[in-house]
Amino acid sequence: MAEKQREQDKVTAAEMEMLLSHHIEKKVQGNSDNVKIHVDDLHKTYNKTLEVLKGVSTDITEGEVVVVIGPSGSGKSTFIRCLNGLEEITSGTVIIDGNNIADKKVNINKVRENVGMVFQHFNLFANMSVLRNLTLAPVDVKKESKEKAEETARKMLDRVGLLDKADAYPHQLSGGQKQRVAIARALCMQPDIMLFDEPTSALDPEMIGEVLVIMKELAAEGMTMVVVTHEMGFAMEVADRVLFMDQGIIMEEGTPEEVFKNPKNPRTQDFLNKVLEI
Amino acid sequence: MAQILGKYGMLLLQAMGQTLLLALLGLIFGCILGIIFGLMSVVKSKVCHAISLVYVNLIRGVPMIVLAFFIYLGVPYALNQFFHAGVTLTALTAGTICLALNCGAYMAEIIRAGIQSIDPGQMEAARSLGLTYWRSMFRVVLPQAIKNMIPSIVNQFIITLKDTSILSVIGFPELVNKAQNVIAITFKSFQVWAIVGVMYLIVILVLQQVAKILERRLNYGRKAKRAR
User: Which pTM was predicted?
Assistant: First the structure.
């Protein structure tokens, strides 16, 4: 069964051509001189022995959509979690909008207000209705009035097509709906940057589409996005740049054309052979 | 039976009042201690972990009757002997301290386990939105943890209520202590202990009903309990 599913997930050569050529048009163009995320020689070691990130460096500019791909255990989730300080940085620098979050003196909560994150397992607050999930942070952190926060929240819910679920509780929603709410929740803080940590990996196949559609819209609107995913189709269609990570470093990076059509690194070729049908 | 109730019923009811007072005080301070030490065992600091661990293990490792004698007799004796402090503790004060320390240790464990049972993703999601650790704890993690903790907390409340009977040994005029007095006068131990037993039973059954209502209230839109 699982094997069959994996076969279906594979992207054929023809589809790849199509996806690459249909690379989405950006409605809003970011300023590509403006570096939003600067990562330099990032190391992350767990328990002083397990080195997960072994020196990652990259710059992500305003409006850029960067998709991180790679095998399990390659450090891609750890990498994205370092970008908003959910993982303590062992060494190196991560500068978000001019704030070095590896520096303990920087107020990480202030930085996080502008960096939305979407998780693999949604992590909606189980004790709150959908609307409260969306208004918690704007009211609590940004000190918005409840009315204003709810107005924004309803706008965002409408945008992800779930306005009718405002009063529902997370356990009453399907996986796809939960993830759309999670995206709306992050958007309510009006972030400049959105991080997606395998947003579709915990979803049933038929629900993946509804989440990807919203992500594509966000990309088209010029949101700066970092996406860890196994959805190669999404990477081809949406990414401005693809990072291939393995063994704690960026093995290869480039436009989707470059990485998917002419991978230079043998590890990339090997990985892509496994996930693509070429 | 009716004769005893008629003659000593009021006395036993008053004693029940004292029992409830002691239990309430013990629970209030016990909950405060439990929250403090419970939170200390989930924060990052290793020093906090160690302090909490020592407290919990110390109290859990000593029988409450020993603790009661130690606080009521031992501590004032030592203070007076070595520091000439002139301290005397009332049975109520000593009883409350003893009960609170005891209840606090078990509550700390309940709270620690309750918090740790919540998916860490809940905390991460709250933090990723810019909430501080403590705001995330109080707005997101604790409300969910408390819901899971309620059966254990109610259990602990009942145990603490019953543990007040141990404090009869330091002469606090609670139900068991007074019952012994009544028996000393009437020699009707069967009837008196039966009455006392039923009195405890009634109070605890009422407490359980209140807890059930509370639990239902905290079900966040879930209509009935179901397996998850």
Answer: 0.84
